[in-house]
Design goal:
The protein is built from seven helices and four strands; from the N terminus they run E-H-E-H-E-H-H-E-H-H-H. The chain is mainly α. It has one domain: 3-Layer(aba) Sandwich (Rossmann fold). The strands form two sheets. A two-stranded parallel ribbon has the order 1-2. A two-stranded parallel sheet has the order 3-4.
């Protein structure tokens, strides 16, 4: 979406101790396919803190009904993750002289994460413009762009298809198999399936692994 608007893209991913590290393989391949200017993977270990089913020995919840997913903050929430990620992006943006940071948070079909809300993004943007030398000197006025914020999962599927995204080479699952097959039962899988169902097409990722949503 950033490329569609004419931006030169510098992509940032994180190896933070998450159980579903296949997302990094997919991010790297996608960055190559889309010919981004540079893709960096930052290493950190948030398992030192734990506190989440994605970074500690806690089972990923499965088998919910879609309508029950937004009923509170789930155990898959990783404490302060988006704040940490955006802080790294802020530092790199200052070095690059970039004026825009794009982040893929979503506040519509979401799982109750507090750092995916519009008010959070607005607050971080305010902070970001107070936090850097470039901002204080007036050389940078940073904008945090969250183009998926108010889109449903179906909207995101449609937009991805219009941009030529190969969804069979994407991943959403919180607890995928070593070969990348989704569990088809976690909240993220359920929301993804809902999006494809509302668009009226089969999920190419499920087709790839011979699964039904």
């Amino acid at each position: 979406m950033a490329q569609e608007e004419g931006y030169e893209v510098y992509a940032l991913s994180f190896r933070y101790g998450q159980r579903h590290s296949i997302e990094l393989e997919k991010a790297k391949a996608f960055a190559t396919t889309r010919k981004v200017a540079q893709h960096i993977i930052i290493d950190m270990d948030m398992r030192s803190f734990g506190g989440s089913a994605l970074t500690a020995d806690i089972d990923v919840p499965k088998g919910h009904r879609v309508e029950d997913i937004a009923g509170g903050i789930p155990v898959t929430y990783v404490p302060a993750r988006n704040t940490i990620f955006l802080s790294f992006a802020l530092g790199w943006a200052e070095v690059l002289g970039a004026q825009d940071i794009f982040v893929g948070v979503n506040a519509m079909d979401y799982s109750g994460y507090p750092d995916c809300r519009p008010e959070y993004i607005a607050s971080f943007e305010t902070m970001a413009n107070l936090a850097t030398k470039a901002g204080v000197e007036g050389r940078q006025h940073l904008k945090i762009r969250a183009p998926l914020m108010h889109m449903t999962k179906a909207d995101i599927v449609r937009k991805g298809l219009s941009l030529g995204v190969d969804f069979s080479e994407t991943t959403s699952c919180y607890d995928p198999q070593p070969n990348g097959a989704p569990c088809a039962q976690c909240d993220s899988c359920l929301l993804r399936a809902k999006g494809f169902a509302e668009v009226g097409i089969a999920d190419p990722l499920y087709q790839k692994f011979g699964l039904t949503s």
